[in-house]
Amino acid sequence: MAVSNRIPILNRLLRIIRQHAMRAQSLPCLAAFFRQGRHSTLSAAALLLMLSLLSGCGLLFDAVQKIYPVTTDELDKICRRQQVQVGMAVEPFRPFVFPAIWTDEGARVTGLDAELVSAVSDALSIHCGTPVVPTLHLIRFRDLFLLLNEGQLDFFVSAVAAGAPAPGRSGFAYSSPYFSQGGIGAIATRPEVIDLIQTRLGTNKGVISRERLLEGLVVAAQDNTDAHLYAESIPSAAALLLCDSLPAAFEHAAAGTSPPIDVIVGAHPVLEFMVKTTQRDWRLLTRNDHAPLWFTQADYAVVMAEENYKLRWFINGVIHELHESGRLERMRHRWIDESYAYPRRASAEGLPFDVQKMPAHYVQGTCRKSSTH
Question: What is the pTM of this model?
């Protein structure tokens, strides 16, 4: 049962049920109890406790099935709703997610990830034989995993590295990658910091651990992102600042707030795009041969519940078709390499979302010192 994956005690109970289900056909008292329908007045927790004490009863498995029915086909549910519930980070991860734009037709959000959502929705419409509308929920990145776990989203996409190790990311599954070279990079603005890192790269013929490059520096990262998880593994950093968003990190640095940020770590393609377009005072850290400096390598993927196997196969198929047709590469070039004004694209092709459910979009938050450093 799908729900047992998320409730360990239920998983253990089911194992007991399977072992003993064949040992006894029924217990008359329990059978009568269920025939009378009295179990409907008990809470699920109390009933499970009672069942665990009566594990020899042959009716146990049926009783648990009534409480926690087997999950129905998630694709069928989407088709019946004619809607697919999609999560996306409210914080801008340019060029994957841009800030929301207010148009004559309402609020719109655009970016590479938004175009991917449109492609999945179009494929779902063909599969269902009826239009399937993507219902977009703009959520703080740190809350996307929580809402998906609660079943409020079918999937979410926001430049998420597939399989990044983290205790809070168990029970989730990732699609085939739709974007490669999505690892962690870093940017800096002060010449002395850049020179220090270049000097360290030049020692020992460049053989130095990536973590040692940031030794003694104040490192900033967006809270609960892959960059945050990576930065926490750098014990030699002088301090780690956790920021609610990348714009919050830039604001902290520009205001001269203490402690001053030496380096911002984040998704390499996002940082690279920002220093080329909106944050020209910052420089992407490179190796001595001017090649990009990567701290990790990763692929970006769509995130969904672990037990949604059919939806995962379906999205994998969509990504494969986009790759085979060449559209995926055109999407990458269109959003990463081309020059464009994203508000125009948002007006023409952006996805709508419910403004009433959106947090304050332009309140990018603050930075605070992590307690782990």
Answer: 0.78
